[in-house]
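task queued by scheduler; priority normal; single chain, no ligands, no partner chains; default sampling; output format set to structure tokens
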Amino acid sequence: GSSTPKKEERASEHVGQISGDGSGGKTRASMKFAVVLEDVITLPASSETPPRARINFLFHAADGSGRVFVNDMTGRVYVIKGGHLLPEPFLDMAIARKGKFTSTNLFEQGLNTFAFHPDFATHDRPGSGKFYTFSTETPRSGVADFPSPDPARGVAHHDVVHRDAVGAQAR
């Protein structure tokens, strides 16, 4: 029978070269390092066919909560805390953008990424609770700030940067 290798056995070792010493001079030093990949959590499937989920970005809010946020390009931002997926998503673009958001299985459509304002967790600052998304929306969602260079071909979707604010209970 086969057995699952230990972390140390699964690690891939690589010898790399480092150039530069910060002073503008050129130096070369070899180093040996290992990369270990480990499954931490499984997110809900958002499709019945592969790919089952279109995970695109994983990041923290820098708010000291220990939470990690991950987006599925189909529009949900999930929260992982203490190694567990919280039952409710942090954001669902289909609800938040009320029919304007679009996500298909095309390569770049959907919720591409998100970012937290640097002052997200600072209650007395203008950036408190501010959260940004970069996603696609339907052509009828509004007038584009930068029109298509070829309007005769029509517009399939708009790329949109959107700012949301969340209440203290979500922070």
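post-processing summary
- The chain has a mean pLDDT of 79.
- Strands lie at 12-19, 28-35, 55-60, 68-72, 76-81, 84-85, 91-92, 111-116, 130-137, 158-165.
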